[in-house]
Amino acid sequence: MAQEIVAMSIKKLFSTIIALLFSHRQFWEDYRSGKAGVVDNVLKDYAVPVIALVQLVKFPLIGIPRQAMIIAIATFLVDVAALYLITGGIMRFFDGMPQNRQEQMITAVIGFSLTPVWLAEPFYFLGSWSWVFASAAILFSLFISANGFSLLFDRINQSAMRNSALLLVTVCVAVFVVERGMLRLFNGFSL
């Protein structure tokens, strides 16, 4: 019984990722209408498992178990901190609806739209080509978040959208630089 629950949640996680990446407009419409296939608690049910899954993918790429675990824990913490930083910052830009509903919708938009950035992290090991994957992931995240904000919010202040996009790009670029720095730092040590 417990194995079926875990298998169903993993299946739901992957189906959410695929729906978000390949039909995000339909995904946001389903989220707005409250269809059963969309997760309720974005941070607990979606963001943290996706971040953890990406960290597990890094283990074979790093090769050294202790170094892989240290890098995975450090980048997991950086990703979660970036998620909270972006979400908290964007909440300051939007107003005009009840606070708890606004917080839930902004958390959903950011939690789901950062998926391409998280999925691009294993490509940060490609050396000088890693910035291409990071740039493409950040642009795709911007596109997904813009669609999410436009479908979930009835009226959008253009300055709030511009500031939100700038914050998202700035934090994602900072995360890329920090994670590349951590990779270089930990590769320099013999752990």
Features:
single chain; 191 residues; mainly alpha; transmembrane; transmembrane helix; membrane; Yip1 domain-containing protein
Molecular structure report:
This protein is mainly alpha-helical. The protein has one domain (about 40-190). The chain has helices at about 1-20, 25-35, 40-60, 65-90, 100-115, 115-120, 130-150, 160-190. The model is unreliable at about 1-10 (pLDDT under 50).
- Secondary-structure-based class equals mainly alpha
Q: What's the main sheet like?
A: none
Number of strands: 0
**How many distinct domains?**
1
Low-confidence stretches: 1-8
Which range does the strand content fall in? under 5%
- Helix and strand element order: HHHHHHHH
Computed over alpha carbons, the radius of gyration is 17 Å
Mean pLDDT: 84
**N-to-C span:** 41 Å
Inertia-based shape: globular
Give the helix proportion (percent range): over 70%
Q: DSSP helix count?
A: 8
Quick description:
It comes from Chlorobium limicola. This protein is mainly α and 191 residues long.
Q: Which helices and strands, and how do they pair?
A:
Layout: H1 2-22, H2 24-33, H3 42-62, H4 65-91, H5 99-113, H6 115-119, H7 130-152, H8 158-188
Helix pairs in contact: 1-2, 2-7, 3-4, 3-5, 4-5, 4-8, 5-7, 7-8
Keywords: Membrane, Transmembrane, Transmembrane helix
Organism: Chlorobium limicola
Protein name: Yip1 domain-containing protein
